[in-house]
Amino acid sequence: MFLAIIICIIMLGLPIIVIWSGISSEIDKRKLKHQKEEDSIRQKEQNILFEKQVIHLGGHPYLNSNDVIYLQIHNNNELYFYKENNNTGDEIPINQITKYELKTDEQIQKDVTLSRFLMFGIASLALKKETKSINEYLLLSYIQNGISIDCLFRNIDNQSIGNIISTLNRLKIESNNEKECVI
Fold first, then answer.
1. Helical (H) or strand (E) element with 103
2. Contact 159, 68 (CB under 8 A)
């Protein structure tokens, strides 16, 4: 009798769990779609060409390490750092950006290995090396108020930040074309 009751509960409960799981998944999909639509509307209203949430690892004078920020490129040819839930931000004209490149964990590791070798000599080969999942890093250098600033950002959730390079390249080309037309 007890076994029959347990079997009935399982037989009735399993479909309910499956149905609830499907409904929950559909709700999550709709929330994500709604959020993307809201983001798209907000980006159009604010003239944002590109926006990516990244982690600031260091270099920016007014951001802390591991701050999660939005890196935005606006239609007015400015790069903008925006920290969510905080009204602080930083605008950098595209023409003040002196260098920007994308690096992977492996490329960063090679740089670290070289500096480790220079610091510890042959003993550095015996030191344990950490391995992590593949991340992309954006190295960004710019001039602000006559000061050279070098920042390092990391992607979130292993999603590519490569589009920022192509967007910056396109804007720099367009900016140079406009200067050539004026001259």
1. strand 97-104
2. no
The identity of residue 169, as a single letter, is N
Are 56 and 151 in contact by the 8 Å Cβ rule? The answer is yes
Chain centroid to Cα 26, Å, comes to 26
Residues in the chain with pLDDT values less than 70: 14, 85-89, 108-134, 158, 179-183
- Residue 155 neighbours by CB under 8 Å, 6+ apart: 52, 54, 55, 135, 136, 137, 138, 161
CATH number of 47-182: 2.30.29.30
The pLDDT value recorded for residue 110 is 67
The Cα–Cα gap between 176 and 120 comes to 45
* pTM for this prediction: 0.63
* Lookup: tokens for 68: 């999660």
CB count in 10 Å sphere of residue 151: 20
